[in-house]
Structures are given as structure tokens and as C-alpha cells.
Amino acid sequence: MSKGRVTSGMRPTGSLHLGNLLGALDNWVRLQNEYECYYFIVDWHALTTPGGGGAIGYENVSGLTASVMEMAVDWVAGGLDPEKCAIFVQSHVPEVAELHLIFSMITPLGWLERNPTYREMVTSYKIENPSYGLLGYPTLQSADILAYKGEFVPVGKDQEAHVNMTRDLAQRFNSLYGRAVFPITNVLLTEVPKVPGIDSVERKMSKSAGNYIALAHTEEQTSELVRTMFTDPTKIRKNDKGHPEGCVVFAFHGIYNKPEQPTVRFECGEGRRGCVDCKKELAARMNTALRPIRERRAALKEHPDRLMEILREGAQRARSVARETLREVREVVNLPPREER
Ligand code: SF4
């Protein structure tokens, strides 16, 4: 029996990197066995920023569909099972856009202007003229969750605040119209491994920083990227005593070679392990772990019809829930009844 309804989305950035896989997708895969899950690729959200510098945005839409499809392939290859969860594209459920519109009428402007994520995005993307869509991003995010009456959103500890606006909006709607249409969504706090970029243990792996290993990379490319990983710069020769704490290779041994990580630490610190061999061992373990995902990925790429079918079925399941939510919303807001398409 399901423990409740989970919703979560990812912005389309093409093939997943290890940070996406270990930091989000692996958790989603676990959740699909216990919850009723709705997972969507947020293509509309990709249009809230201008883009540029290779990134997708409203000024750079040429790679948008391809990016959505690459991500969908990796979701399924990474273990999301269309029999267990709904996998779909945000814009394939137009009811979300209608709910966003209705929510936008009752969202106080001050909530959006005070939103720290909005300010961060404007600063980090150096956006000179932020759009109406960017400011309203959290309202769309709330519609993404509440169209399916999402009870839980899986987040890391640092993202707890992202769900607050959805909770506030659900409360505001329910109290304005005197009916508990929406649940008050809770976070599902998740312990996820910290996944550093290949360039520094201090920086997170990300596409924009270019410090990533992707599922789409071949085993050879992966080994080459491991070879370039940042290590202890004071350890030049094999028998120099190293400091594994600041070494990216050591951090990844903690993920892909966990039982042996204490040995790696000991041998590095004692000058009994060289960086070249240490990297070769990590690359081999990483490639072994990723091989089944990459094989499923290749098989899916050969059958794009199967992927389209998964997305179509996922959108149908999601739409049947969202339609019912919108019927209820229209009723309490007292919009004239309409014939459903
Ligand atoms: S031996 Fe391994 S853990 Fe130590 S610095 Fe080199 S790569 Fe890092």
C-alpha cells in the first residue's frame, strides 16, 4: 500500500551526471516502491531564464526537446520504472498551466519578491531584466506539486524552504474558498551523498561548471575524466604521504568503493599508494557500477518509440489526476462549468 503521493521534477539539462544520479534519481527509484510517484521534466521552467553560454532558456531553445528526451532516457535507464511511477514532461499536462494561472491571481507579489531563490538566480545567471515568468517561478512550482495533490516532495536538507511557498499557497487557497482542496505538502528529507565536481571537493558537480561525469559518457571518457580529477597537489611521487581529505578521487572511493575507502586513506597517508593506480582502481569501479545503466541507455536510444510511449502513458496518468483537481478548483472558484475535452 502506498504511503502517499510524491511529486518531483528536474529541469532539462540533457544527460544526467553523477550528481543528479546519486543526489536525486537513486532516491526517486527507492521512493517509487513505497509511494505513488509523479516525476516530470520541467520544460516550462527551462524557459524562465534567458539561457545562453550553451544553457537552455527562452533566448536559446534549440536544444530544448533533445535535452528533455536525453533526460527521460537517463531516468528510465537509471531505474525509474514506468509500471511503478508516472514519468512525463511538465508541458504535456496543460492543466498545470491553468492551475498556475489561478494561483497567480492569489499569490501576493511580496511573497515572490522576497523569495531568496529568485534573487540568487538573478545574481548567479546575471539576469539584467528578469521576466514575469522567473518571478512567478515558485507559483508554477506550486502548481506542479498541487495539480497532483502532492503530499510529499523529496528534498535535501538545504532545499527545505523551497516547499514553503507551496504550503503557504495551499493554505491560502483552502482558506480563501473554505474548502480543503489541497493537502499541505511535506518535505521528505533525504540523506544523499555529497557529490563533488571532478575539479574540487569544495564544488558540487554541475553541468554549468563543466566538472561532471555523465551517464552518456563512454567508459573510456569516464576513465579519462577520472584521470584528470583533482588530487592532493603535495603528493607528487607514489611514496609521498598524501592528504586524502582534499582529494576528489578519495571522495569518489567513498561512493563507488566504500568498503575499501579506509584502506585507500591508510595507504595514501602512509605513502603506499600512487595517484595513478588509485585513479585506475576508481575508474574501473565506477564503470562497473554504471555499466548496466549505460547498457539500458543504449537499448532505449535504439527504440525511441518506447520512450515516447512511456512519456505518453505517464502524461495520461498525470492528466487524469490533474483534470480532477482542476474540476474541483474551478468549482470552488465558481468558474462556469465547461465541457471537458
Ligand atoms: S593516492 Fe589516491 S587518495 Fe591519495 S591523493 Fe592520490 S588519488 Fe588521492
Mean pLDDT: 94
Task: Characterize the main sheet.
Answer: 3 strands, parallel
Q: Which ions and ligands are bound to the chains?
A: iron/sulfur cluster
What does the overall shape look like? elongated
Q: How many β-strand runs? A: 7
Radius of gyration: 22 Å
- Helical content stands at 40-55%
Alpha plus pi helix count: 13
Beginning-to-end CA distance, first to last residue: 32 Å
Q: What is the strand arrangement across the widest sheet?
A: 1-2-3
Q: How much β-strand is present in the residues? A: 5-15%
Unreliable sequence segments: none
Order of helices and strands: EHEHEHHHHHEHEEEHHHHH
Give structural notes.
This protein is mainly α. It is built from 13 helices and seven strands. The chain has a three-stranded parallel sheet. Strands 4-5 form a two-stranded parallel sheet. α8 links the parallel β4 and β5. α3 crosses α7, α7 crosses α8 and α9 packs antiparallel against α12. The chain is elongated. It starts with a strand and ends in a 9-residue tail after the last helix. The structure holds iron/sulfur cluster (SF4). Iron/sulfur cluster binds next to α10, α11 and α12.
